[in-house]
Specification:
alpha/beta, Rossmann fold, Glutamyl-tRNA Synthetase, domain 3, 3-stranded antiparallel sheet, 10 helices, 37% helix
């Protein structure tokens, strides 16, 4: 029987902030409560990735009490990524897109255009037109993207917290014009290959999930369990980034804030609780509280970070 995994998939481009860490704790707890194994995938394709950040991120996850059954380094799977690209290409499911960034912006800003939504400009070019476009691209010293030819106007996924979510589907990019594979493509083919059946991540990614769900259905004829969780944002209501260096685990502990208090604060921010309001001071108690709290009672609103949050 194939093993089933939940996963957490950070990019090692910096130190994890508290928003990353709360999401990781939720991903681990949801997997633990469902009887799945847990996988960490370091998505180090980004050129900003550094080995030292992999080590630091793993140390921080361990400090929170998160354990994992498998560690995957995404860049080691490049041969598999190329193989899956050719699977799509050989089935004539991809086509070349010669649109420049300027042209894509103009398409999106046109009357009835949808921001970030491709209108299929290059989908039905003749072979003669494609040859002309390739030659123009060669002379301009630029390459072209490859897009997935979809046959649906929209796609619906089910999310444990958000319910059914439907969004338009366009012919989205599989390989970018710089030769790198897109996040949507890598995310899906890696999850399928690695036995991931539960995906827990920030709800800022919910809007892109129907595209990924469409590709999942195409390649695996099934969908994983999706759980999109609320973000932690700053006072300007902008989601935290790894550039928010003052909100890392090491920064908090250097000011004398105990790990137990951090976990309990994470649980309180989500309105998780245990019988008799027992403090939630470990990863295992966090998972127990997540199992005890009805999903409809979980706080799905963004949590605004201020320095006072972790004060006792």
């Amino acid at each position: 029987m194939t093993e089933s995994y939940g996963r957490y998939a950070p990019s090692p481009t910096g130190v994890l902030h508290i928003g990353n860490l709360r999401t990781a704790l939720l991903a681990w707890a949801f997997a633990y409560n469902s009887g799945r194994k847990f996988l960490i995938r370091m998505e180090d394709i980004d050129e900003r990735s550094r080995p030292e950040y992999i080590s630091q991120q793993l140390r921080d996850l361990e400090t929170l009490g998160i354990s994992w059954d498998k560690l995957v380094i995404q860049s080691k799977n490049r041969d598999y990524h190329r193989h899956m690209f050719h699977v799509l290409h050989d089935q004539d499911l991809l086509y070349e897109c010669y649109c420049t960034r300027r042209e894509l912006r103009e398409i999106a800003s046109a009357p009835h255009g949808k921001p970030g939504f491709y209108q299929g400009t290059c989908a039905f070019l003749s072979e003669r037109e494609r040859k002309e476009k390739r030659e123009q691209a060669r002379k301009a010293r630029r390459s072209f993207a490859l897009r997935l030819r979809t046959d649906a106007d929209s796609f619906t996924i089910h999310d444990t917290l958000a319910g059914d979510y439907v969004a338009p589907i366009d012919d989205f990019v599989i390989r970018r014009s710089d030769g790198l594979f897109s996040y949507n493509f890598l995310n899906v083919v890696d999850d399928i290959a690695q036995g991931v059946t539960q995906i827990v991540r920030g709800n800022d990614l919910l809007s892109s999930t129907p595209r990924q769900g469409y590709l999942w259905k195409m390649l695996a004829n099934k969908l994983p369990s999706y759980i999109h969780v609320p973000l932690i944002v700053n006072k300007q209501r902008i989601r935290l980034s790894k550039r928010d260096q003052s909100i890392t685990l090491s920064e908090l502990t250097s000011h004398g804030i105990a790990i137990e208090h951090i976990i309990n604060t994470f649980a309180s921010s989500l309105h998780l609780h245990l019988p008799d309001d027992h403090p939630i001071t470990s990863a295992s108690l966090f998972a127990e509280a997540l199992a005890y709290t009805p999903y409809e009672n979980i706080n799905t609103c963004a949590w605004i970070y201020t320095p006072e949050i972790f004060e006792s």
